[in-house]
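Q: You know discrete backbone vocabularies at least as well as I do. I have my own habits and do not want them to colour yours. No explanation is needed for now; the record alone will do.
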Amino acid sequence: MLRKIFHVIAFLFIAALVISALTNNDPDDLSKQAAQLPVLLLAGLYVGFIFVMYILPALTDKATTAVFASNETTAREPIHKAQAAYARGEYIEAITLYRAIAMEEPDNRLPWVEIAKIQRDQLEDPEIALNTLRTALEEHDWPADDTAFFMGRIADIQLHAMDDKGACIAILEQIVEMFPESQYSASANHRLNEIAKAQEEEIVA
């Protein structure tokens, strides 16, 4: 607040000096013209200071924000198109768009997961969904967490969409064996216990 008051006072003071110097200007009086030079120089320095300290940073911030916003919009445009196609119920188009993203971003597991989800839930074809996840798993060298994640999705489809408990249990046991220290191992163990409990209840019933 004090800084603003200071700049207002300084501006009014310099403006008054400039107006006074211009008002008393006499083209034939060299001494008056010479006296104007320090005033005009001071005004120019002050305007330059204000530009460098306030106007230039503001313009730079706006330009930087615009560039980053443009880059972010461009980067997210393909995923937005795929999501929009899905929202419209155009599932084949959404799958095509997600496949294009997978080609452009081979380290991104999201498009593969979304494709399999559409195939399982909307197209009601869990076998194709399984093949999609297996293809993604086999055709790329994924980090451990991504590998375990894909395997968990495969086990989920085998259990809930295909009622293949044996295949599901085999995958979950692989997760526990291959990734013993990961969160996915704990989740797989929990699911194995749930399946075993459900099987015991079926036997008792």
